[in-house]
Amino acid sequence: MQDRLEDVKAQVQAALDEAMAGFPPGELTDAMRYACIGGKRLRAFLVMESARLFGLTDREALPVAAAVEALHAYSLVHDDLPAMDDDDLRRGLPTCHVQWSEATAILAGDALQTLAFGLLSLHQIGTAEVRVALIRAFSEAVGARGMVWGQALDIAAETALEPLDIVAIKRLQSAKTGALIVFSATSGAIMAGEDTGPLTEYARNIGLAFQIQDDILDVIGDEAETGKRLNKDGAANKATFVSLLGLDGARDKARKLVRNAESALEPYGEAAGNLRDLARFIIERDA
Amino acid sequence: MQDRLEDVKAQVQAALDEAMAGFPPGELTDAMRYACIGGKRLRAFLVMESARLFGLTDREALPVAAAVEALHAYSLVHDDLPAMDDDDLRRGLPTCHVQWSEATAILAGDALQTLAFGLLSLHQIGTAEVRVALIRAFSEAVGARGMVWGQALDIAAETALEPLDIVAIKRLQSAKTGALIVFSATSGAIMAGEDTGPLTEYARNIGLAFQIQDDILDVIGDEAETGKRLNKDGAANKATFVSLLGLDGARDKARKLVRNAESALEPYGEAAGNLRDLARFIIERDA
Question: Do B118 and A102 lie within an 8 Å CB cutoff?
Fold first, then answer.
């Protein structure tokens, strides 16, 4: 799986570089490129592997893979802003507003969202209905009923009188990070016009496991490894899966979710090997 | 034309309300709705009248009209942020970050951009190629080569050592406000698969005339009428069409542009009556 992840990384970086190649020189374009450096590209990997399950080639799925990574980059740039999470370190580098300015970071995030939709409109798979359905599913996943709603819940939680309970924190995670993961993992099925059910189930489970592992790493991780500031949640007295379930409880929960994710992949047999490996990687990673 | 403008306003407001009807209750949705209140809806009017030239109905064009207004609303919310233009008054009301918070304003703008693309994916006109072409043209107009680039140029101009010259200020305006106006005015032709040339020419001229009139109103206007803070450009020692051409020179230039815009409409004859009226309205308005 690591080879495939490296392969996807290289393809996505090339696609993003190509998409921005004709952009006007200046701080805005520089900041957009900067925001697209690095990252694990797990969402792009999900798109490419999801597409492969339905006989679609990397070349066909690449615009969609690049789109989810451009969208993810925008969300990180805006989340890191002083008015939001106020982070100064991301992927081991100064965050966008530290490196440039708040104004440039806001605009770079805005333009990366636009780029994501522009890339989505480039893919050449399927009928009109399929192509439009993909754009619609994407906008549902990342808008005011998906990712941005989750971020708004997260901001609201910071000023709430009571820490969130496990139901509320699951709902938050499912919107904030889960919706784009579900979109990524089901994109192949959407493009092929096939049932999205099993991949939705897979993605919900790994999305939650991913967040739990993030919470675990926030407590036991290494800033040099993760490339971001740690123990922010503890310092902010924020409810996390670790604070609610304990470290062992959180680990058990994540392992159970990964088993569920593996079961959801059964209809796809051997072809889903990389997706199975990814599920395990999510809780084994230390960054 | 005023009756038609009121009619478009009502249709677009209903479409935006309907699009947000199922959104989760809370500050984010409230702020998005708040940002969509009011406005002249000139861009929506352009979409509807452009569509009508090619035999498309209001019902068919409405998702596109609502999309350009959602996009415009997002751009205003982000432009008004403290890190950007730092405005406290818009459309006669406190700006979004004053009414709510900076974090909510950033997220509401983000989600309004997503909503715009979601609405665009709803329209039911034409072939797959046409529908995707419309989304692609929209992303070109509002991204890092269009509107957001113009806003970045505007921010850069504020800290530049020399005020901009007339070539640079035209380039800035053409990107910042012109590109979305061109998209709106040509959207009917794109949907119908017809030549966008004449409407592009029309839109470039009224877009520039609109900006010149804005600069004139910034000097001679009334804050109660315009619903926004005035003389900000003068206070910031920023080059404007008025500072570069003088008040009379700016008025002459705007009148000439409107005549060019009217000429560009000749291929459409009587059917373009409302678009002709709009061109004149743009330089006669006092708000």
Answer: no
- Please give the residue of chain A at the shortest CA–CA distance from B145: A23
DSSP 8-state code for residue A229? -
Q: Report the residue from A24, A74, A142 with minimal CB separation from B149.
A: A24
Distance from CA of B262 to the nearest CA of A (A): 32
Q: Which domains does chain B have, with CATH numbers?
A: 2-284 (1.10.600.10)
Tokens read off for B176: 């910042």
Which value, to the nearest 10 degrees, does the dihedral of the CA atoms of residues B13, B18, B178, A110 take? 130
C-alpha distance from A183 to closest chain B C-alpha (Å):
15
For the segment B268-281, the average pLDDT, to the nearest whole number, is 97
In this structure, how many other beta carbons lie within 10 angstroms of the beta carbon of residue B19?
21
Q: Over the stretch B105-145, which tens digit does the pLDDT of each residue have?
A: 999 999 999 999 999 988 777 777 788 889 999 999 999 99
Using CA atoms, how far apart are residues A178 and A204, in angstroms rounded to an integer?
6
Task: Decide if B127 touches A, using CB distance below 8 A.
Answer: yes
pLDDT of residue B231: 74
Residue A79, CA atoms < 13 Å, CB-side half-sphere: 19
Instruction: Give the mutation candidate from A139, A154, A174 for the B interface (greatest B CB count, under 10 A).
Output: A139
The answer to whether A247 faces chain B, any CB pair under 8 Å, is no
**SS3 (DSSP) at A275:** helix
Matching residue, tokens 């107009």? B141
Whether residue B213 lies within 8 A of chain A, CB to CB, comes out as no
Is some CB atom of chain B closer than 8 A to the CB atom of A277? Answer: no
List of long-range contacts for A221-227, beta carbons under 8 Å, 24+ apart = A221/A286, A221/A287, A222/A286, A222/A287, A223/A89, A224/A92, A225/A286, A225/A287, A226/A286, A226/A287, A227/A38, A227/A89, A227/A90, A227/A91, A227/A92, A227/A93, A227/A287
SS3 A194: coil
pLDDT > 70? residue B235:
no
H or E, element range at B203: helix B197-220
User: For residue A245, how many C-alpha atoms fall within 13 Å in the half-sphere facing its CB?
Assistant: 19
Measured between beta carbons, the chain A residues lying within 8 angstroms of B142 are 114
Q: What is the pLDDT of residues A99-117, one digit of tens each?
A: 999 999 999 999 999 999 9
A104 and B145: CB-CB below 8 Å?
no
Q: Which of B72, B42, B73, B49 is nearest to B186 (CA)?
A: B49
Q: Please name the residues between 19 and 78 in chain A that touch chain B, using a CB distance below 8 Å.
A: 20, 22-24, 26-29, 32, 74, 78
Q: Which residues lie below 8 Å from residue A3, measured CB to CB, with a gap of 6+?
A: none
Q: Is B122 left (phi over 0), alpha (psi -120 to 50) or beta?
A: alpha
